[in-house]
Amino acid sequence: MEQESLLTDLETRLVPASTGQRFVNYIIDLIVYDVVVRFVIDPLVASGNNIIYSQFADPTVLIFINQLFFFVLYTSYMFLLETIFKGKSIGKFVTGTRAVNEDGSFISTRTALLRSLSR
Known about the structure:
about 75% helix
């Protein structure tokens, strides 16, 4: 009985991720995102970009559209990862961390969306 109590106490103890772990999470997530974009997304939208780009002569509009597209894509990517894996991203899997509520419960879909938008 005493052993179960000790195990429960250990499981519920929250330890905040260090600044270094957070940085490593961010770098790993950016690298994975970049690989996904370069090898999956870019080939899929290459022909679509030609159509979009041909509609605008002003390069600043093109830059804005491009940045907006990648903002939405990165936000969606992080939102889906943290929603599907209950607070984990690829970087968090590597470092053994997880985003949780203050009480240790899994983050909600809304929280995952707000976290993703804040990035």
